[in-house]
Amino acid sequence: SAAGRPLLGRRVYPSVEKFPTNFSKMASQGATGGGKVSVMVENKDGSTAPMQFDLAQIMMALRAQSSQKKKMKGEKLKDPPMDGDKKNTKFILCTQCNSKILKPGKSTYTEKKMSLHNMVMREEKKSQSTQELSKFWLVTSQFDFENVGVSKNVSTAFKYLACADCDLGPIGIQFTNKPSEFYIAHDRVAYGMPPETAEKKPSGSEAKSS
């Protein structure tokens, strides 16, 4: 359930209590003019407002998203894939579920020493040990994210970032004194491209080394 998660990256969140019991049946009815669901949508100014969507449209979008996740398999890379402007040249993905976190060109590579707690799932016992990391992707707008979750304040100084689909994290950090800056750790994400794109030509540091 998306209930209670931060509204980031232009994500939309259905009002769960209004979901029909037989979702597939109502979705098919939506294709013929019935079956609407109220969805909370975040505007660029941070405000939210309810909008009505056909269930058939929502089902179609969810199926397309699921299909895309299956097609794009992430892999860990030793070196961050970037172009001459230090922009990411591949999709940044969750290492657990392959959910898309950032599209190519939406973050800038930077090196900065920071310590993050070890990665855990929400159900797991949280470890208090930390790991020092230095390779990060800097994102300067919450609307550049495809999919990300933000924790409550870990301390007065920062919040953690996690995959919004499977809750694996922390994959990055946001400092409370600089709320428009988000850092995604290179060592805690995977990278991928749709098969049709990946087969055409290598990109970034891979292209230079070939």
Please provide a written account of the structure.
It contains 4 helices and 12 strands, in the order βαββαβββββββββαα. It has helices spanning 23-30, 55-71, 195-198, 205-209; strands at 12-14, 36-42, 48-54, 91-93, 100-102, 108-117, 130-139, 149-150, 158-162, 172-175, 182-185, 190-192. Strand 2 (36-42) and strand 3 (48-54) form a beta hairpin. Helix 1 (23-30) crosses helix 2. Residues 1-33 and 205-210 have low confidence and may be disordered.
Number of strands: 12
Number of helices: 4
Q: What's the overall average pLDDT, rounded?
A: 76
Distance between the termini: 44 Å
Q: Which consecutive residue ranges, at least 5 long each, have pLDDT under 50?
A: 1-33, 205-210
Overall, the morphology is: globular
Order of helices and strands: EHEEHEEEEEEEEEHH
Portion in beta strands: 25-35%
Report on the biggest sheet.
Answer: 6 strands, antiparallel
Side by side, the strands of the main sheet go 6-7-11-10-9-8
Helical residue percent?
10-25%
Q: Report the radius of gyration as a whole number of Å.
A: 19 Å
List its traits.
3-stranded antiparallel beta sheet; disordered N terminus; 16% helix; 210 residues; 6-stranded antiparallel beta sheet; alpha+beta; globular
